[in-house]
């Protein structure tokens, strides 16, 4: 075991010494690593698994899985008496304060998640809770679809135990972010510790186990915590796919793709950062649509299939259609727009997604009025000059756009049946306060006060 992992596992200050027994149900990858690492922090850990080979291996001080440093960590914890394993769940639950469910949730042929193991453990765990005394915290660590912990696990536990969640026992979902081969390092130095809890007692009981770890502690709902796990892994898969598609294009161009991506990742202000990673409306402007279009054209000219890159513009178009459906669903006929340029603080109308949305509305019987203090004649002329790739519908919208503007934001809100807010500006906020009864479609993520108004709808929140 590398020296740095030894020091990590023994030098961290302990959390809450009143928690003496933890049960880890399932000694696969997540369970075995969690059991060993928590035991190394001097919590008494009972690993539970029906596989006798895994149980015997752990009791003999051996790792049931191959993972860097885990064999030594388990050996030390087992010999010191902090870690043991058994096949029976009920005695382990009766002897523990917190139980972690770490069973597998593989894919079915349909792509759905197989929750049979989780369901089975929940039944057995609930029956064990019926016999136990005192408060017990159940923590789901298996990756599950959002809503599973609340809508599947909790009802089973309550039914089988005859006890009330939030009163007699607690419930959390805690996603794991362990990379195979680096799992021990990731456990003791995680990028974040995320805890979704049914209530504050559940959350804080679990959080106490991780006191001393150098990572932000993020407390949230069960559903957010469940979703974060899927988003993290999908993002990682997306990054690999993106890099591979870029690599295939670079290969045909006789460009070093490794060097290109090496330079790409040096940018931590935009490329590897929170920039652009907020749900919202479609992108636009002079660069993004044009350059995505161009790169896909280059790939096509070399007959390179890049399905991820080719999906970007269609996906962006779907966001515009989604906003259109939200407007149509409102039944509004008079539609006002606050913000038309592709983003706040610029007069650039080139490929503005608001104009794409306006173009579709002009094909209906809707009436439109617009306000945007950033729009200029020069900006409008530039947008028209760069509309070669645009549809006839969009070019027509650019032609009639000047006649739709009104002098102030209040003119829009006073007239409209629904207000589409694309720019969060001071005059927009003032106009919305002046007409607090008007329904709003928010494309800009307005402040919390505005999001509480009646008739408010967010584009994807």
List keywords for this structure.
single chain; 461 residues; alpha/beta; Rossmann fold; 3 domains; eight-stranded mixed sheet; 46% helix; elongated
Structural class from helices and strands?
A: alpha/beta
Here the CATH topology of the largest domain equals Rossmann fold
Count of beta strands: 13
Number of helices: 20
- What is the gyration radius calculated from CA atoms? 28 Å
CATH class of the largest domain: Alpha Beta
Q: How is the main sheet built?
A: 8 strands, mixed
Q: Give the overall silhouette.
A: elongated
Low-confidence stretches: 1-17
What is the CATH architecture assignment of the largest domain? 3-Layer(aba) Sandwich
The spatial strand order of the largest sheet comes to 3-2-1-4-5-6-7-8
Give the percentage of residues in beta strands.
5-15%
> How many domains make up the 3D coordinates?
3
Tell me what the structure shows.
Helix 2 crosses helix 4 (70-79) and helix 10 packs across helix 11. This protein has 20 helices and 13 strands. It folds into three domains: 3-220, NAD(P)-binding Rossmann-like Domain (Rossmann fold, 3-Layer(aba) Sandwich), CATH 3.40.50; 223-276; 312-458, 3-Layer(aba) Sandwich (Rossmann fold), CATH 3.40.50.720. The model is unreliable at 1-17 (pLDDT under 50). It has helices spanning 3-11, 29-40, 52-59, 70-79, 89-94, 116-131, 148-161, 183-188, 200-207, 222-253, 257-264, 288-301, 307-310, 312-330, 353-362, 377-385, 392-400, 409-415, 426-434, 448-451, and strands spanning 21-25, 44-48, 83-86, 98-101, 136-140, 169-173, 193-197, 217-220, 334-338, 367-371, 418-421, 440-442, 456-458. It has 461 residues and is α/β, with parallel strands linked by helices.
